[in-house]
Structures are given as C-alpha cells and as structure tokens.
C-alpha cells in the first residue's frame, strides 16, 4: 500500500515522503480500516516537526483523524463489523495519511449517513473539542455571546457552528478577507478581520458594552490577552491551544477584579479520565449533523502528492475550513 511517512522530523513539506509499505495488521483491541478520507489537523504538522506531546517511533505515518471502512478487527474486538463506515482517530505510528490505517477500537464511531466521507473525516477531533469547550467546560447558554478566534480554521469553524446550534450569538475573529467570508458563511453574526480591525471594540459595540460571555481561544498570545479586555462579568475564557506560537501568562489579579473564569481544555485527557463522555458527545454531534445544524466545511481535497504542501500551508495559517486527504 501507499503511505506518507516521516523518517526524520522537520517541516512537513520536507519530511513527508510517499512510499510503498506493507499493510499493517490489527493487534489486540485494534481495527484495520481502508481510509476513505483523512482530515488534516494542526497536530499533524507538530508531529512532523517532532513538537507534539505524542512522539511515535520513526518512521511513522501522520494523520490523526479519518473516515474509513472497517477491513479487519483484531483480537478482543467483537462489536465492530467488517464493512462498517466509521470515523475517529488513527493509532500511530500507522496513521491515516495512507491507504490503510489502524484505529483503537475505543476510538471508532459510526459515521453519520448525512455526511460524505470527506465531511465525516472532520467530525471527530475539531467538533469534539468544540463541544467539550462550549458545553462541558463553559456551560454555554442560549442567547449568550461567544467570541471565537481563528473562526475560519479547523476547530474555530466547528466552534462557530456549535455555538450557533446552541442558540448563541457569535463574533468570529479571522485574519484576512477570504477567511472573513468563510466565517460569515459558517454563521458568525459579526466577523472581525484582526489585520485591519480591533475585535475588542467590535465585541463591546455588538454587546452594548457587556462583553463576550464565552471566549473560545485556540490561538493564545495576543488573542488571549486582548480577550481579557472584552470578557463579560462572569464570562468564561476557554483555552484550547496556542496555534499563534506564544503561551500567555495571565495576570490572575485581572480575573479576580473582572470576575471571569479561565478554563483549560485538553480534550484528549477525557479519553483517559472520562472515556464515557466521548460517545455521548458523538451522539449529540451526529444528531446535529443529521439535522443540518453542523456540517464540516471541506475547502480542499488533497492527493498524496499534494498533501505535504497542504500540511505546510495549514501549519502557516494559510488555509480555511478543512483540508482532507483522499487516497
């Protein structure tokens, strides 16, 4: 089979190599799937660079999220049948940037019939992250205002749709006119281009001076610092990641004075500490997809030859919506 593999860490465009390799075999508790589509995520770029918290042995195939067709179940896996169309996360080092990939049985979920293979490939990590951030951590309520950073990106686009599905008002922050159009198409009520506008002033104007009830922040750095200037009384800032490259050092006295909460979200930890919450969230996301309230925005479909450059562009913040590898 064909697979894109990393033999030495570095920039994705330089280290992802297309090779002929043996098809993996599922071990105990694993499932072998034929990849129908693999979403490109920021962790894939970090894996290539050797900067992700998980460091699989070299050589490895990235690709942490996919939609696939079950080919074979390993020992101890009885409830997942061959031929089933599923989605979830791949089991590294046999990731999803290949014709076939391995999945842990506890990370395999039915793909909604309402979504195409490309769309279903994008429903797991980003939408689960958005769901847990907005509902489990921030306890979002109908009518509240949500400030979403990187609103045209992978997790940001999911957060916009999920917030709107919950009856919230959304202010989306993006970088550039094309991304502004994307955020508006996703349903954001107000879109702010951070390159030419001040989102702090926009949030205050839109909320009549109250500020945002919830901030969804996968960026960090200045995005976090400026968000503290427009957070509402009893607002909640959910720290999702640091795609901007800078980890902020918040002044806790400011949180005390303004009476807001700083919440962390490491979604992967739920798989270890509260695994029963993942299927529950998937059921809710499937319902929303079937109702047409959420639908992953697939902006590009990439061949194996185009994938290294695509991962590089995503790492540089040059993409909108979701990129999907289609073997």
Give the helix/strand layout.
Elements lengths: L1 E5 L5 H4 E5 L9 E10 L2 H8 L15 E9 L11 E5 L10 E5 L3 E3 L6 H4 L4 H13 L7 E5 L4 H12 L3 E6 L2 H10 L3 E4 L5 H8 L5 E6 L3 H7 L3 E9 L12 H7 L2 E4 L2 H7 L3 H14 L7 E5 L4 H9 L6 E4 L2
Parallel strand pairs: 8-9, 8-11, 9-10, 11-12, 12-13, 14-15
Antiparallel strand pairs: 1-2, 3-4, 3-6, 3-15, 4-5, 5-7
Describe the structure.
The protein has 327 residues and is an alpha/beta fold. It has two domains: 151 residues, Alpha-Beta Complex (Quinone Oxidoreductase, Chain A, domain 1), CATH 3.90.180.10; 144 residues, Rossmann fold (3-Layer(aba) Sandwich), CATH 3.40.50.720. Helices cover 31% and strands 26% of the residues. It contains twelve helices and 15 strands. Strands 3, 4, 5, 6, 7, 14 and 15 form a seven-stranded mixed sheet that branches. α4 packs across α5. It is globular and about 60 Å long. 50% of the residues are buried. The mean pLDDT is 96.
Keywords:
single chain; 6-stranded parallel sheet; 2 domains; 327 residues; 26% strand; Rossmann fold; globular; alpha/beta; Quinone Oxidoreductase, Chain A, domain 1
